[in-house]
Amino acid sequence: DQVLHTVPETFQQVQHLQHLCRTLLLDLWKPLLPEDIWAGEDLHIRVPASLLQEVKDSLDQHMISYKVLIPDVQELVDQSMPKERSSHRQVPEGYNYTQYHSMEEIYQWMTEIQKSNSELVTQHYLGKTIENRTMYYLKISQPSNKPKKIIWMDCGIHAREWISPAFCQWFVKEILQNYKSDPKISKFLQNLDLYVLPVLNVDGYIYSWEKERLWRKNRSPYMNGTCYGTDLNRNFNSSWGSVGVSYNCSSEVFCGSGPESEPETRAVAHFIERKKSDILCYLTIHSYGQYILTPYGSTTKPPSNSKELMQVAEKAAAALMGKYGTRYEVGPTSLILYNNSGSSRDWAHMIGIPFSYTFELRDKGTYGFVLPPNQIQPTCEETM
Amino acid sequence: DSDNVSRKYHLELVLEDVLDKDSTVNCAAEVLYHLGNKNIAPDVQFTLEGELKDTAEADNTFYNRIKSLEKELVAENIPDSHGNVSPEMQPIHLLAWVASGYVIWQNSTENTKFHLAQIKHVKQVKRSDEYLEFDYTILLHEMVSQEIIPWQMTVLWHPQHGVQVARDSRQPKHMPE
């Protein structure tokens, strides 16, 4: 919804504006009644989003110039009631999902989530990072005697993409808050288990909080400790080291000393390999760019189920756009982005997981990696 | 269109005002990349359908505010780690955006995709003439290599005379340990 400001100049314009307000039942902020609209006097009208185009077209047609006084009424409303928005009814109590959280806080959050939702959520050990920190994933599973297929989602493989772990946390919260009341979600959970890894690259994430905000890789030392970090998304065993990588540690796309050279990569790969016959869908969340990427990055040769992959991705992009109009591009990485090898998504597909996607969340470069917290909610809502 | 020396792209795009999403202007552009010599910036020709908004009022407010500062403006990390930009720093951020556009243009090839990631540091330099001068160190993110490239740029600005990048240079990446 927007609030428009105009100053009618002629009697005809006044009449037209009165007509508009009366027939569309527009919310007049100033003056309060259509009959109080006068030439030469300020007019403030709140126009619901659904009528915006119609009203603006009508004003244009009648040569009535206007300014947008408030571009987003809801935003202003939200800003004026800070606490109301997210914290209190959340699981756990008081956790703010529209803020970025440190790794300490995320570890605590996982413990809390399991404690307060023990009938549905369990926390599990996945492995250790190079700096010996623990990687945990959450399993969301409704007890049943039916065997269930798995959907795996990992976030935070690249340290600086803060919106990604924020999304994983949001996702878990949404599921837990709504699985009893939302028929779609409860049906989902009857047939599927969700495995969520909120932060894959724990060391890197911490480093981006404490030392260098735009750090990307993990914190593996090379060259006698003179150079750090492998790009974990170039380290998987999918055409490893062939294209879109560097063999030089100082590069942001250094692929490591060999496929799965990094403990973080091995932790994820071994787990998925063990469970692969039950995994229906592999999702990995990144930013930025607003893409839903399908295999492959290492070649333009399409995957065997390319048509189906695209169909599902396109439906997802359409649903996403339906929320706030955000445009996501859909397609294979090698065609719409760049060539890269060793990505987790390619690897997952190559070992037989039929649906494998990389999501690149908001935005398109305006804020890039430093996406402001007021975009956490809309980004997460639309991606949901 | 292309031969082995250059490649030309015809683009139709819509410009959107960052501060007012409803204000848009159609644009047609031609970009010519010099394939032979990577050190020449691509040629750009464009036409706008309509006019850009008049920003005189906001420009003058900002100009006067800076001119009346007792001490030179200094700031770091815009946006901050969480993506926040204070209202006072908004114009500084916008100015960097515009100026970085020039730097990006001068350094683009068919295989690069740059974005301004963050202003690491900005310092105002007092001048005796009517221009405002800012010494920026920005971080550019290059999508294909995923590199973060520090870049220094000296930006001059005046409400009537617009933006000028007087000097710019790529900086070496030094690891904070």
UniProtKB/TrEMBL annotation, chain A:
Boundaries of every Peptidase M14 domain copy: 99-384
Active site: E360
Keywords (A to Z) from UniProt: Carboxypeptidase, Cell membrane, Disulfide bond, Glycoprotein, GPI-anchor, Hydrolase, Lipoprotein, Membrane, Metal-binding, Metalloprotease, Protease, Signal, Zinc
GO terms, molecular function: metallocarboxypeptidase activity; zinc ion binding
Topological category with respect to the lipid bilayer: Lipid-anchor; GPI-anchor
Location in the cell: Apical cell membrane
Gene Ontology terms describing biological process: proteolysis
Cofactor requirements of the protein: Zn(2+)
GO-annotated cellular components: apical plasma membrane; extracellular space; side of membrane
Pfam families (alphabetical): Peptidase_M14 (PF00246), Propep_M14 (PF02244)
Family membership noted in the UniProt record: Belongs to the peptidase M14 family.
Function: Carboxypeptidase which preferentially cleaves C-terminal acidic residues from peptides and proteins. Can also cleave C-terminal hydrophobic amino acids, with a preference for small residues over large residues.
Full protein name: Carboxypeptidase O
From TrEMBL, chain B:
Pfam families: LXN (PF06907)
Protein family (similarity comment): Belongs to the protease inhibitor I47 (latexin) family.
Gene3D superfamilies xrefs: 3.10.450.10
PANTHER family in the record: LATEXIN
Domain Cystatin LXN-type: from-to ranges: 1-54, 74-177
MF terms (GO), sorted A to Z: metalloendopeptidase inhibitor activity
Protein source organism: Aegotheles bennettii
Alphabetically ordered keywords of this record: Protease inhibitor, Repeat
UniProt GO cellular component terms: extracellular space
Name of protein: LXN protein
Origin organism lineage: Eukaryota, Metazoa, Chordata, Craniata, Vertebrata
Keyword Repeat listed: yes
PROSITE patterns listed in its UniProt record: CYSTATIN_LXN
